[in-house]
Design goal:
This protein has about 775 residues and is an alpha/beta fold. The structure holds ligand 26Q.
């Protein structure tokens, strides 16, 4: 029996010579974390020798870990009592920054899946990179985004354990880099299962070269060390593939190779595929495939034996439908970074062509993994994997019909759908304890922790007393958010308003531009006296733009300009607030989501693979204002179309329009749209001489790739209807309840269970 948690905390603090009352935040964080970790240490080190799954991902956006681990370890209540007993603040760790080792949805999904697998007793370990700096810290200066380094380690990293004796060497064309693992315990329900997130840190295997140093060549002496250590310095801040950067390829091979070597070592003599199922989170870790084949052949297998082993082992999740986002590398770049992998790729290509020929296919062009100087990573992943999956029903259908059509024709059973999910522990129990308690009181604690049976809330959709409680909780969460935003942004937001929320990475396809143009249109109509009975609304935006993504940064500037426009007008200020929250991250999401009334999911139909923020918002009682895209389709199926607000073009209509889409036709025929587009250039709004607004205007008029103009009228109308219907607060609360009740399907426990059963062949 581990020593009592309280004793363990005090003993840890004694190492610093302090007590709970006198400890500073870092000391307390370290002590509480170490004490909690020691409670599960035994379990963690004693793992059963059954087949496990490995989730290979360049990103794990885990967010703040301390409360989540305390909750699952069954220690959260004891921790809070301990703090209160000593007159200390149980919320103190709210000040600890997030490890932001991911960009957005893909990285957060990986984190939810690890948590769910541990919670459900599924043996799933994560493998990734321990970036020295996470996704940049965002500041807004004069309305423009500025990026700063995210030094997440300044808080210490008490949840990680460095395992020097598990370090491995990764081979590159120009030498070796040492990969040192840092293990994080992923604690399941009451600590019954403890899985591992293993993040590799790049280090030099060469000691500092004193010969060079003595020869006065100081810089050179430090050179190779620096080069190796730079490898895991930063997370690439693009959430789409664009530039074939050498360092990115090095990163991908670095963690893929280290992870395969690690698993091989743990396999011993047993066949690899009997011990491991490997899930590729997008194509980013796909070089793990030739790496495994190479190592198996080096161990004595023939190529075909090794290939078959790889096929049994690997499966691949696709997260995008946009063809241009499919990851490609130039062969020459690959040759310079990982030359030893090229012969394996050629053999895989030979095998691919043989399989195609056997099926009577003579045109290899759409399939070739290596075509001239291009290596297609997604094709490699699809060809070798035994299962490929999309992340929402509509996304999987689009994959089968378009980007992966040829592969689907070749092998109709291999592409399947596993709709994404979110962990209810973080996205209900931890971020909204008030609502979790209501669910627990109504349906039992299990429903609040697992969402099992939460559909029974439907019976309360018209229950007066329940409706009152739901309204009251929303009010409390708005107060908390307003307080938090005041602290962070120094802005006061009103409580008696609709909280209309769009929080996600800034991307043209996600159409934050559509949102803000419609807000501007609302402003103009209020000014002209047209919208006399408008329900006051706070429009909340949050998200980061990739540092090199000019148009996305222009949209941030525009949102801030509209915000200023509103603030300058007493008439508007009375009805509207526009708030762009700074440095949106997982912890910020945990504050905003419980307070939201409207979840903006307005991507052009056919562009958002799934979306998972939409699920978090529905679970917290927001209604979706969205297009028929990604998981919105299934959300509406679960929660009822009448309880959500769907607008805009459907995928089929987008396809039909594509050939001769002319945005000017919409602009010329819709005076309201024309007015807001004009406002970009007629001096109504200030872009401080950056030229950004006229670039936005040009892009809308000339191309409008994501059909903002086509969906504008439908969006504004639906938004108006929502604004009117909100006034009947009880009927709106019924809609909230129906959304909460419908969220059960989106638990990541369900998703991970599907992966385990249908793809990995693993039992709980
Ligand atoms: C690749 C190569 C080089 C540099 C960067 C990248 C890169 C990095 C991150 C490419 C893509 C990403 C992230 C993609 C992502 O987050 N996709 C989202 O995945 C979610 C989980 O499935 C979905 O819900 C979202 O719809 C999808 O946009």
């Amino acid at each position: 029996m581990a020593i009592k948690f309280e004793t363990a905390v005090k003993e840890e603090l004694a190492k610093y010579g302090v007590e709970i009352e006198t400890a500073d935040i870092k000391q307390l964080y370290n002590a509480v974390s170490s004490a909690a970790l020691s409670q599960v240490a035994k379990k963690w080190n004693r793992q059963k020798k059954t087949k496990r799954a490995a989730y290979l991902s360049a990103e794990f956006l885990i967010g703040r870990v301390v409360y989540a681990n305390l909750l699952n370890g069954g220690l959260l209540d004891r921790f809070k009592e301990l703090m209160i007993k000593h007159d200390a603040d149980p919320e103190i760790f709210e000040r600890i920054g997030d490890p932001a080792l991911g960009n957005g949805g893909l990285g957060r999904l990986a984190a939810c899946y690890l948590e769910s697998a541990a919670y459900c007793g599924i043996g799933l370990d994560g493998y990734g990179i321990r970036y020295r700096y996470g996704l940049f810290r965002q500041q807004i200066e004069n309305g423009f985004q500025r990026e700063y380094a995210d030094d997440w380690l300044k808080w210490g990293d008490p949840w990680s354990v460095r395992k020097d004796y598990d370090a491995v060497k990764v081979q590159f064309g120009d030498g070796y880099v040492t990969a040192v693992p840092y293990d994080m315990a992923i604690i399941g329900k009451n600590g019954a299962t403890v899985n591992t997130l293993r993040l590799w840190q790049a280090e030099s295997d060469e000691p500092f070269d004193f010969n060079l140093f003595n020869m006065q060549k100081y810089e050179k002496a430090a050179d190779s060390r620096l080069k190796a250590e730079r490898l895991s310095d930063v997370l690439y801040p693009n959430d789409d593939t664009l530039q074939g950067k050498k360092l990115r390829l090095r990163q991908e091979y670095f963690f893929s190779s280290a992870s395969i070597i690690d698993m091989l070592r743990k396999c011993g003599d047993k066949p690899f595929s009997s011990q491991y199922a490997v899930q590729l989170n997008d194509s980013h870790p796909t070089v793990a495939i030739p790496e495994l084949i190479l190592r198996l052949t080096e161990g004595g297998m023939t190529f075909n034996e090794a290939f078959n082993e790889a096929r049994k082992t690997f499966s691949y999740t696709n997260h995008t439908v946009m063809p241009e986002a499919m990851e490609k590398w130039s062969l020459s770049l690959m040759r310079s970074v990982i030359p030893h992998i090229i012969p394996v790729l050629r053999q895989i290509q030979k095998r691919l062509r043989a399989e195609l020929s056997a099926k009577g296919i003579t045109d290899f062009t759409p399939y070739d993994i290596i075509d001239n100087d291009t290596v297609h990573m997604a094709r490699l992943a699809v060809f070798v994997s035994h299962k490929v999956n999309g992340v929402a029903a509509i996304h999987t259908e689009i994959l089968k019909d378009t980007v992966l059509k040829e592969w689907h024709d070749l092998n109709p059973d291999s592409i399947i759908n596993v709709t994404n999910g979110i962990t209810p522990r973080r996205w209900l129990a931890l971020c909204n304890p008030e609502l979790a308690e209501l669910v627990a009181d109504t349906l039992g604690e299990d429903a609040s922790l697992t969402l099992k049976g939460i559909d029974r809330l439907q019976d309360f959709a018209n229950d007066k007393a329940f409706i009152e409680k739901i309204k009251q909780i929303k009010r409390i969460k708005k107060e908390q958010l307003a307080h938090y935003i005041f602290e962070r942004e120094k802005r006061e937001i009103r409580l008696d308003a609709i909280y209309d929320v769009q929080i996600k990475r800034l991307h043209e396809y996600k159409r934050q531009l559509l949102n803000i143009l419609s807000v501007l249109d609302t402003c103009f109509r209020i000014e002209s006296g047209e919208l006399a009975d408008f329900t006051p609304t706070v429009y909340i935006f949050g998200g980061k733009a990739a540092p090199g993504y000019y148009m996305a940064k222009a949209v941030i500037k525009l949102i801030n300009a509209v915000s200023e426009y509103v603030e300058a007008s007493p008439q508007l200020r009375d009805k509207i607030q526009v708030v762009f929250v700074t440095d949106y991250n997982v912890s910020y999401a945990e504050k905003i989501i419980p307070a939201a009334d409207i979840s903006e999911q307005i991507s052009l139909a056919g562009t958002e693979a799934s979306g998972t923020g939409n699920m978090k918002l529905m679970l917290n009682g927001a209604v979706t204002l969205g297009t028929y895209d990604g998981a919105n389709v299934e959300i509406v199926e679960q929660a009822g179309e009448q309880n959500n607000y769907i607008f805009g073009l459907r995928v089929e209509e987008v396809e039909k329009l594509k050939g001769d889409y002319t945005p000017m036709r919409y602009i010329d025929s819709n005076p309201r749209l024309k007015r807001v587009v004009d406002a970009l250039t007629d001096g109504t709004l200030q872009d401080d001489g950056s030229g950004m607004f006229s670039d936005l205007s040009d892009s809308l008029k000339n191309e409008d790739r994501y059909m903002v103009c086509a969906d504008f009228a439908s969006y504004c109308d639906t938004r108006d209807r929502l604004n009117r219907e909100y006034r009947d607060e009880d009927s709106f609360a019924s809609k909230r309840i129906m959304n909460i009740a419908g969220a059960g399907y989106f638990s990541s426990d369900r998703s991970v269970g599907e992966y385990a059963k249908r793809i990995w062949g693993i039992k709980k």
